[in-house]
Amino acid sequence: MATEAAPMDEKAKRMRDLLSSFYTPDPSISTPTSSISTSFDNINGPSFDADQYMDLMIKKSNLDVLLQRHVQMAAEIKNLDTDLQMLVYENYNKFISATDTIKRMKSNIFGMEGNMDQLLHKIMSVQSRSDGVNTSLFEKREHIEKLHRTRNLLRKVQQFIYDLPARLQKCIKSEAYGDAVRFYTGAMPILKVYGDTSFKDCRRASEEAIETIIKNLQTKLFSDSESIQARAEAAVLLKQLDVPVDSLKDKLLEKLEQSLDGLQINPDEASKLAEHNVSSKDEESNNQGPAKIHEDAVRGFSEAMRAYREIFPDSEERLFKLARALTTTHFENMELYIRKRVSAADFLGIFRIIWEDVVLMDEVLPEAALSDLSAEAAQVTLKQFVARTFSHLQQDISDTLLKFDINQKEVVDGEVLKVVLEASGKAEFRQLLDENTGIFVKMNDLLIGWIQKGFQDFFSEKIHAGLILVLAQLSVVIEQKVIPRIAEEITASFSGGNSQAFIPGELCRVFHAASEKLLQHYIDTRTQKISNVLRKRFKTPNWVKHKEPREVHMYVDMLLQQLEEVGKEVKQILPQGTFRKHKRSDSNGSNTTTSSRSTTLHSDKMARSNSQRARSQLFETHLAKLFKQKVEIFTKVEFTQESVVTTTVKLCLKSLQEYVRLQTFNRSGFQQIQLDIQFLKAPLKETVEDEAAIDFLLDEVIVAASERCLDVTPLEPPILDKLIQAKLAKSKEHNNNNNKTTVSS
Amino acid sequence: MQGGSSGIGYGLKYQARCISDVKADTDHTSFLTGTLSLKEENEVHLLRLSSGGSELVCEGLFSHPNEIWDLASCPFDQRIFSTVFSTGESFGAAIWQIPEPYGQSNSSTLECVASLDAHVGKINCVLWCPSGKSDKLISMDEQNLVLWSLDSSKKSAEVVSKESAGMRHSLSGGAWNPHDVNSVAATSESSIQFWDLRTMKNVNSIDRAHVRNVDYNTKREHILVTADDESGIHIWDLRKAKVPVQELPGHTHWTWAVRCNPEYEELILSVGTDSAVNLWFASASSDNQASERSAEASRQRVNPLLNSYTDYEDSVYGLAWSSREPWIFASLSYDGRVVIESVKPFLPRR
Hints:
The structure holds 2 protein chains of 2 kinds. By secondary structure, chain A is mainly alpha-helical.
């Protein structure tokens, strides 16, 4: 076998080689054994060349060998043939069997698909079943888990409840009521439900503990020594413990209401308060004053309100009511207070206190609209105060006037005015206006309105004309000094947008207008008086049948006296203006023109008296007027002594001229006018700044008289002079007499 | 303010105080004015505004025997007018008629229709009944009020009734209510008196001293405007005459006369002795509810003074609106200068 096996092996090996060489065309992979044999004679080599082999064989070998070789080769070929046949057959067999197998497999697979489907189906059903089982079991498992957890919890609760009384006791000891209440409220539901079971003792014990806690808390709530916060906390805790809070709240609010009485500003104490408020500004060290106490009280009150508001959110309405009540009582008391005579400083002090109170409360209860309420109330109060101040002022003035009237009327008048000016203007109003508390900013306009109204009311009652002048000056003071100051202060304190409420320009304008009006009014009243004198003078006599002039007429004295009065008043109240002559630089020129005109008039009148001349004279007047610059009679009044006096004199002279124009004179009537005017010339020029205008106006009077005269024959200058001198002497004597009488009295 | 540059001027020879609109002349805007000269021969000028409105033409110049203190044109006959005059020693009042072919001879004489010679003292004014056709006249002296009936064809005037206001009230002028022909307002020393012409009784009065001039608002009933020496112009509602409805500052010196515009009810003119004519806008309504608001409104509103015409050399005494062209007025200053101005630029928008 072994020997057979070897050639068999050899044979098999060769076959394999051949097959492989057949299948792999690459010669390099041919087995190494083939490469060992010589290239030509190796019949198995790839490079075997049959012809070359044959040639070699024939050449090398003899016939025997050749025959041998032939036989050998034929045998080999035969072997190979059979081998090949075998191989083919085997392969064929294998192929056949493979085909069979495939056929079989094919038939087998046909049935498999259905089976597979079945299989899948079954697997699915198996899966769903297993899910079902799982879910049905899940609930139970969950439940079991829950139960387990609950059990754990219950164990803990049990522990807690059992510990509760001890814990509560501990809390009571340490006064940690908050914790205690928290614990207790936590345990409450359990105790309520299971109180009858095993927790009975625990429940009783903890209830007892809570009882004591409630008691403690209530005492704490009502004890005033405790801080508001502590009390508020106590209230909260009590509320949490289901203790009836409403009754508590009512009690507390009642208490709060009672405490309001303490907060009220007693009218009697108000002045003290205000005084102190003022003085505490000066000495900061003294803080124990009533003002401070009051402030603290209000602060406490507002804090309490804040606390209550937090504690009892449903009690806002009542708190509002309380706060409002406080504010209104404040203002009511204020009204009571100002019913007495109060200085503006005191008034403002209290006002400031109230305002601060309101601000404090407003912080706590912004919804209560306290500031609006108080603004309204303050408006009313302020109005009253201003009204009162005015009535007081008026009374003052009338008092002083009366007092002085009895004594020496004329002399003291000025002093009165000064007193009034000082008292009224500088103190009261300026202080009022100076104030820049927030509320005043809002109300400044109103205030000024009232003050103006007050002024106007002043007029309607007939008060001394000088007073009007004082008021005019006061307005100027306010306009020029006070308002800028207020504006400054306001801009300093309200750098923000609040400044629209106060428009200094507008106010200045108002006061300026007021002062001008007042000044005008003063001049009007004054000229009115003088006008009355003049009217009487010109309406009474029959000028056409006038007698020859003997002396300067009385009314001139009255006129001068009135003017003197004006001058006196004006001198005391108004500032002196910078002295200047007439506005126009050529005042001298016009002066000479006027005088020259009047002299020509004189000479004309002296020389001729018939109507033709009068006619030419009128013509001359017109001509003169044409060439003469129009003297500005009605210039703007300024706030100076001179301006006011000048204006008054001018207006009076104009009136005089108009009265003259309405009359018709005979020769004597004209002469009387001429005399009076001539007499007036000197004193008027003394008092008045604008001489040119006065000259012009006096001449105008003469011209008017001459125009209205039936027979213009002026007095001779010497007679004129004589009469004037006589008058002067007489008035001097009169003055002396007066002086004597005053000295003797 | 605007000067008088827009005005049309006309110079009278002598001084003058009074000017009147010729209401009956519907074809032209005419004015009558008379001079006030004690010694010269006085004249009445009939002035007519040329159709272009650029010239003032003297249509007629008539001599008048005495100086004229008051002049009023007849509302229904343009040729008839009344004057109050003074000889220097005594006063008189008369109705005159302009001769028919006027304007040809330079100084034709006036025809005296009637002399209103029932007065003794100083006569103030003659008022024509404003209703137009009525021939009633009122003349007023310091103490008496006389109602006349004029018959111009017969050239006679008869006293219908005469009543004395009393010695204490020296009357100074007046105005006939255009809304009620039986009512006349008269100014006196201490008050404004309202006379009922049927009974000739003083039925009402407003206490107001030294009122110099008075005028009814022709457009608004119950509204009366007065001028004072001292305190300017006051507007009254006669239904509640305790306090004036509105006050206007008036003039720097006396406010001599006021006239309401015949067409534009808010416009008021005033003249004063400060040689100025002021045009005012007085919107104050007479409604009750407005009284408070108007006070505030008047404070807020801009100056009620619309314009001040200041181009005058002397005091202005004469003033008249033209009824034909109600935006035109004539003013007369003491030096005899007539100035016609138009207020067109100031007319309120309608």
